[in-house]
Fold these 3 entries.
Entry 1:
Amino acid sequence: MPLQLACADFTFPLLPHDQVLKLIAMLGFTGVDIGLFERRSHLWPSHELAAPEQSGAALQTRLAEQGLAAADIFLQLDPNFAPYAVNQPDAARRAHVRETFVRTLDYAAAAGAQHVTILPGILFAEEEADASWQRALEELVWRVAAAQQRALVLGVEPHYGSLAPDPVTVAALVAAVPGLTLTLDYTHFTRQGIPDAAVEPLLRLASHFHVRGARPGRLQSSFQDNTIDYARVLAAMQAGGYAGWLALEYVWSEWGGMNECDTLSETIRFRDELRRLLSS
């Protein structure tokens, strides 16, 4: 099956959500990555998950009207990584995060999605790193089982600032949690100066993939300044039998200077480049 292209709805935060979906369809994408980000996306968990099955079904209807499918539901409960990390030391907060995750699974199933993405957790300064790590493993094992009960695939996105910031640690995390997969984004490694070759072994662990430009020192860059060799990435994907979505994930945000890219133009440029590479 040929790889399919998706686009994140949070690429265009200044448009109403219905117009975002129309734009993504007009650009020729068949899938949408839905950002379920509290206080920083169109759809907030606190709103959508009050009645998850109803909200998810409504989302599926809106997507179908544009000929789109939900490629991924990406859950983040706070703009800051710490307050609602999966491995939050505070037991009451962890319980809230678990409950919200279960509601997210119900939402994703109702929306027709087959994939959910979360963040893997962080190392908390007030405790030993091993304690943060072990708590994250316990929480991720529980989440994989909950997702599998609903026939959903769970991916974590290893990111700059997480407890798995480099490829070796990422591989160790996945190995420690049977059934866990990756929503893989090279840009978090590229920013740190980690070469493509060091990230490439993680492709075999990936169930979803983010595409945008990046270069050392910058998490997001233009197509022109990008240093990731996506021709090599796609060749490795195809050789390894990757069957997930390729999701364009430009972000328009003040954080990290990510509002310096024209997200529409850069999305189009990468869309065309991916199409060219996939047809060659």
Note: The beta strands are 4-8, 31-37, 69-76, 115-118, 153-156, 181-184, 206-211, 213-215, 218-221, 245-248.
Entry 2:
Amino acid sequence: VSKLAGEGHCRSFWHVYGLETVALRYFNVFGPRQDPASQYAAVIPMFIAAFLDGRPPTIHGDGEQSRDFTYIDNVLDATLLAARADGVAGETFNVASGERISLNTLIAELRELTGKEIEPIHTDPRPGDVPHSLADVSKAREAFGYEPMIDVRTGLRRVLAWYEERR
């Protein structure tokens, strides 16, 4: 609700005061430098840390929940494109990869990338957890030419390499 209210404030400031604003909705951003031990840690750094430590990652639920994971370079690209675009003031755009991947598939990718056959621990689902998210990025594509360039697998390889270099 607070994010939606913020988007409304941005739109209002554009219409009332002429202050050019663009709201970008980032979906499940991942990349190097995320702290897997943070209380706000995203699932990808937590899973990578578990694999590198040789311990099973924890999945809340059956692992079939899915997310539109977005590599940080895509986010940076979209942000710069939106900042430079004409005719987008007051608008809101989704920034994502535009593809959905389940947590089970994410684990399978990490198994393949690390060469480690680690099985996750499944716990009870989190109350209120959204089962699936998938962003429609067509508005950003049409308005300012956003095209996600780094897919999830390539992003995972890059993040994994970054964590391995720092171990």
Note: The first strand starts at residue 22 and ends at 26.
Entry 3:
Amino acid sequence: MMNRTHLLLPAVAICLLSACAEEKAADEAPATPVPTSSQAAAQPETPAAGGKVVVIEMLTDDGGNNVFRPAEFTVKKGDLVKFTLGGGVHNVHFPADSNTIAGAKMPPAGPMLQLPGTSTNILVDFPPGTYFYQCDPHALLGMVGRMTVAP
């Protein structure tokens, strides 16, 4: 009778080699997509003439709370709002169903930011009024805010 170990060893070796090849291929694939220059160029970097830059921090604080700081602020047409990641993974979104002011065109939902210091910039070009924004994955946990555009 033949020893079964002789039959099992080649099968185990093939499985191990196959697993190593799959692991190496996974290691070589990029973990996150790199934005193209056209994506980076789509964001405004400076306010309009006479406007100012307003920085809003998006973060998960030491208590585990997901927050915008400040969550409520006032701007005017021409200002640049810079939603900057302080920690955690967040985005900013002005949902159309929560922002129904006539003539207001809401920007698309921002990307999920993962690296501290990265930002989503929005040039204020909305009619005067109050606009609501949120972090999509954390809105139900209270990561919401209000932006008032002054006349």
Note: The first helix runs from residue 4 to 28.
